[in-house]
Amino acid sequence: MLQQGKRDNFTERLQHPHFEIRGKTIGLIGGSGCIGTAVTKIALTLGLRVIISTRELKSNSGIHPDVQ
Fold it and tell me: Measured between alpha carbons, how far is 28 from 53 in angstroms, rounded to an integer?
């Protein structure tokens, strides 16, 4: 398709609206375990604010101190 010079289908997928997620808030419910910790690290790397609701926050979970 690109070899033939037809770029309509190629650029069509790039026309969707994009938005910035930096500064947004993500909430994790019951998630301070392995998966929650991994999601938290990714979210903080992307500049998200993280709020975790859990029964017990594990002291050795390695969650960043900026997490509420």
Answer: 6
